[in-house]
Structures are given as C-alpha cells and as structure tokens.
Amino acid sequence: MISIQGLSKVFTSNKSNTAAVDNLTLSIDQGDIFGVIGYSGAGKSTFVRLLNRLEEPTSGRITMNDKEITTLNKRELRLVRQDIGMVFQHFNLLWSRTVADNIAFPLEIAGIPKAERDNRVKTLIELVGLTGKETSYPAQLSGGQKQRVGIARALANKPKVLLCDEATSALDPETTNAILDLLVNINKNLGLTIILITHEMQVIRKICNQVAVMENGKIVEQGNVLDVFLHPKQTVTKKFVKQIMGSDEEDSDISHVMNRYQNGKLIRLHFVGETTNDALISQIIKKYGVDISILQGKITQTQAGAYGTLFIQMDGNEKDMNKAISFVREETSVELEVIHDAN
Ligand SMILES: Nc1ncnc2c1ncn2[C@@H]1O[C@H](COP(=O)(O)OP(=O)(O)OP(=O)(O)O)[C@@H](O)[C@H]1O
C-alpha cells in the first residue's frame, strides 16, 4: 500500500548537515500495524512527518495506493492528506473548542455540510468512547481522553492510513494500554493501516504485526514482530527486546535452580508463535502421569501469538518421561531441551 524508496531528509543548520532520515526504503501493506522503533534522535518523527509531507523530503519517493505523494502540488496534497490521519504525542487540540468541535474541525475544512458533520462527530465520539464529553473542553479532560479526541479527529475524514507519532508516550501505563486497544479496534473494524513510531518495545509487542528498527536515520532491522523478537540481530534491537524479556543471561542463570531441584529432568521449553499450547503442561501430566514443577520463565503475548521460555522439572517413571518429551518434540510447536538429567 505504501512504498518508500530512497527517502532522505537532510537538515542544514549552522553549516552542518544532519541526515535525519537517510536513504530509507520500505514497504507497508494494507492493514498492517507497522511500528517504527528507535531511540531519541534516530529520525522517527522526521520519517513519519515525511509521509504526509509535513516535512519536505530532500530526496526519494513515497507512493501511497499508487499515488506518488512526493510529486503532488499543494492542492492535490491537501486532498491526499484527507486519506492520512495523524495522532500526536501532545494531542495538538484546539483549547478554545469543545470535544465535538475539535473533532468537527477537519470536517469543516473539508467543507462537509453541518448535518453530516454532526452525524459523523456523534459516531466518532461513540467509537472512541467519549460519550458524555461532547461539550467538555480539552483542559477538562484526562490525558487518555485528550488522546481519544486526537484519534477521533484523525479519523474524521475517513482516512486510509493513520500515522501515530509517540501517541502514548505522554500517558501512564494503564491509559497507554486502553489507547493501544482502541488503535487495534480501529485497525480491525475500519481496516485502517496504522504506522506508529515509539521508543517503547511494549507498544510494538502489544499491537504491531511488523516492526522496523531505526538508528541514525536508517532502518537497521525489519520484519514481523515475532521474528524480530526471537532473532534480534542488531545491538540496538537486542536492547529493545531486553526491555521486555530481560537478557539471555538472566534466562540461562538457572544454576541455583539446578541445585535445588536435583531429581528427574530439568527442561527448558521455548514457546513460539501461534500455538500457545495453553494446556500443554496439564496435558502431559494427565497423559503420561509425570510430575511437573514450574521453576522459572517468562512468556509474553504479541499480535502473532505467544513466545518465551519456561523452565520445568519433570519427575516420574523414566519411560513415561521420555514419552512425554517425544510428544512435545513431535506433536507441538514448542521447542524442548533437556538441560539436566539426574538419571
Ligand atoms: N527542524 C530540524 N532542524 C534541524 N535538525 C533537525 C530538525 N528536526 C530534526 N532534526 C535532527 O534530526 C535528527 C532526528 O530527529 P527526529 O526528531 O526525527 O528523531 P526522533 O527519533 O523522532 O527523536 P525523538 O523521539 O527524540 O523525537 C536529530 O538529530 C535532530 O536533531
């Protein structure tokens, strides 16, 4: 749906040049929730602002639904911008307008007649969960409610793409989760493609299906979220994954566990993707009559399913334990490794 080729933005100030976005090539599919993650200064904001030409590129091409954004004149750009909604970190609301009038603002600019505008605003207020707040002013709202207004306003002209620039960074964790849930609903129910930039891996984990990691204006790693979580290649990506899962060292630091549980087999289970195997543990206990103690682990959920590691101790009859191990290895998608065997 969106194709970006050789996109660059160079800022010149005090005779020094900064390549905020550096020769970036990327494609984004219809219906994706595409996350761009990077540390401060990586070029994320510049990148997202280039997409709707709030920032003019120095070079490169952006096409959206076969329309070349980068060559549009002002009038054409105004029309295309109706297809691209944008949500900002600090909401950018009009403080002298009520919630309803903030949401109606882009519709007024687009010349939508009053009756249609009112209808649309009513629907949007319901969609973002602000019923009852129509006549409140932004100053009377919480951060989460302000962002709901920002989202409703971004959706007013029925865009095809929603750009979110650190949309949850000013919010507390609980409010962040509620806003992320709202974005997923919008993506599912309206079929909207969402591009969001963030410095928080939790945001990527929770709602994105694709992720690109930015550093120094470049995309250094990209792929579906589970793959990137499982096999981070670049140091910067590994750091982001560590934000959520802790380090590999923590995972493998099970010597204390090995000392305490000396019977049976110490096993590491690695869960990946769509088969969460929720009932795996109880299934093997029932089926093979073995005892299982859960010792340590961390499993997390992404849009593509669960992944993570669990350390267990399995005890019982040797034959039964071996059958249970074969079952996991052969009939489930869970990877199993016996890391210590007392027998
Ligand atoms: N208008 C500008 N003039 C000059 N330099 C700029 C301008 N905007 C951004 N930059 C520079 O471009 C680089 C990328 O900035 P950008 O804001 O895109 O990064 P970011 O990843 O969004 O960071 P943050 O999360 O802190 O906003 C930085 O080095 C920044 O100083």
Automatic annotation (TrEMBL):
SUPFAM superfamilies: ACT-like (SSF55021), P-loop containing nucleoside triphosphate hydrolases (SSF52540)
Gene Ontology biological-process entries: amino acid transport
Name of the protein in its database record: ATP-binding cassette domain-containing protein
CDD domains: ABC_MetN_methionine_transporter
Record-linked SMART domains: AAA, NIL
InterPro entries: AAA+_ATPase, ABC_transporter-like_ATP-bd, ABC_transporter-like_CS, ACT-like_dom_sf, MetN_ABC, MetN_ABC_transporter-like, NIL_domain, P-loop_NTPase
Similarity comment text for this entry: Belongs to the ABC transporter superfamily.
Alphabetized UniProt keyword annotations: Amino-acid transport, ATP-binding, Cell membrane, Membrane, Nucleotide-binding, Translocase, Transport
Pfam families named in the record: ABC_tran, NIL
GO molecular function: ATP binding; ATP hydrolysis activity
One Gene Ontology term, aspect cellular component: plasma membrane
Residue span(s) of domain ABC transporter: 2-241
